[in-house]
Design goal:
The chain is an all-alpha fold. It has five helices and no strands. It comes from Alteribacillus persepolensis.
Amino acid sequence: MSNENEMRHYEENQQANDKTNVWIAVILTIVVNGLVTVLFFMDGFGDGDVGFDLTILPMMNAIFNSFTTVFLLGALFFILRKNVTMHRRFIYAAFTSTGLFLITYVTYHGLAESTTYGGSGWLAGVYYFILITHIILAIVIVPLAVLSFLRGIKFQITKHRKIARWTMPLWLYVSITGVLVYIMISPYY
């Protein structure tokens, strides 16, 4: 009888944990995507004259996205080998580099005007396809990554695996295309 009660209590606890995870993911999604949306419509707070070359920040964005890609691939490598400790370390590193990316991204777009892509022809089509899919999936990845992370650190393994199967490839796509967008637009800064 006590085992049955303990099991029911455990399941109720897990459900409450997951509701908390979802709320944390929703709040962080609103904050992060809301901040980026505001910056998109504001188009910079000033004239970009802050005492240093702001174009270093988009390069830093690309570097941080590159690190995120490497860290995600490392996390994938280790989890496929059932090395949870190394998987977690690489996921922590991916979140760190993504956080640094977000800081440099918000700083740049808060201080500088948007840069327009200057290419034409089929290359412009490729650029805009990559850019649009990157933006849409960057919005989607915020709640997926947060929820995957929270479920993983709280050992909700079944739920973590279900969402991580979507999160990993999408996050990789976003980090890789972030670098490609930078490479394609960098001549126009």
